[in-house]
Specification:
Elements lengths: L1 E6 L10 H6 L6 E7 L3 H13 L3 E5 L11 H10 L5 E10 L6 H21 L3 E6 L2 H10 L7 E3 L6 H9 L3 E4 L9 H9 L5 E3 L21 H12 L3 H16 L2
Helix pairs in contact: 4-5, 6-7, 8-9
Length: 256
């Protein structure tokens, strides 16, 4: 069964058919999903989904674009939520410089990124890292926080194969999704060619990043079949083997 390691089913894009959609996953060959929080509100909605649906688990953290929501009281609250049942990771956390250009905003992102990495260490949970247009600073923060001692995945990996090699040295994983199927996804395919299959997790990031032939539409976990096909072709294995290995990887990573 396919394991979707990164989804956002609490997003409003699923408000009209969330129940029906999640009920269809097993029949579509999707066995397990990790729903990932982005802001403080979605910490609650992610937990609610995980508690309702047996196949769903929760990752809790604050995305860099929402780092301004954090202060010491809310950070303590987040720490408490990490003790809830079915929480399997801290995430998604990291740096995103695509929209945020001001030094003060970037410094705030780095501060709360580092603090949430400390949370992962305290709770012995793996981390899900978001990094966009911020490779250098992301690696610097991770190195300062001794990333090689943590268990981590680079969500929606979008950097070069050289960066991939550095992350592989830490024993980390890579979240691979719809971009692998894009015509302009050459850089990612080059990176995936050097990433061992036992270091790859399948992910949708739904409702975003639907693969070809559904690019531009709302994404969901059933579309991972297209990513499996692309990954199997790159790695020279059967689709069944790609599904089984990536599922084992995800279960090992999340401790399931």
């Amino acid at each position: 069964m396919i394991f979707d390691s990164h989804a956002h089913y609490d997003d409003e894009a699923f408000d009209d058919d969330r129940e029906e959609l999640l009920s269809s996953m097993e029949k579509a060959g999707v066995g397990t999903i990790v729903n990932v929080a982005a802001d403080l509100k979605s910490v609650e909605t992610t937990l609610a989904l995980a508690q309702k649906w047996p196949a769903l688990y929760a990752a809790l953290g604050v995305h860099p674009s929402f780092a301004g929501e954090l202060d010491e009281p809310s950070f303590r609250w987040l720490r408490e939520k990490l003790e809830e049942e079915k929480v399997v990771a801290v995430g998604e956390i990291g740096l995103d410089y695509y929209w945020d250009k001001e030094p003060k905003v970037r410094d705030r992102q780095k501060y709360w990124f580092a603090r949430q990495l400390e949370l992962a260490r305290e709770t012995d949970l793996p981390v899900i890292i978001h990094s966009r247009d911020a490779a250098k600073d992301t690696l610097e923060v991770l190195q300062e926080k001794r990333a090689q001692e943590l268990k981590g995945v680079m969500h929606c990996f979008s950097y070069t194969k050289e960066t991939a090699e550095k992350i592989l040295d830490w024993g980390w994983y890579f979240g691979i999704g719809g971009v692998l199927t894009f015509k302009n996804g050459k850089k990612l395919r080059e990176a995936v060619e050097i990433i061992p299959l036992d270091r790859i997790l399948l992910e949708t990031d739904c409702p975003y990043l639907a693969p070809e032939p559904n690019r531009g539409k709302r994404n969901d976990s059933r579309n991972l079949a297209y990513v499996v096909s692309a990954l199997a072709g790159l790695k020279g294995v059967s689709e069944e083997e790609a599904i089984e290995i990536t599922q084992q990887n995800a279960r090992r990573f999340f401790g399931l």
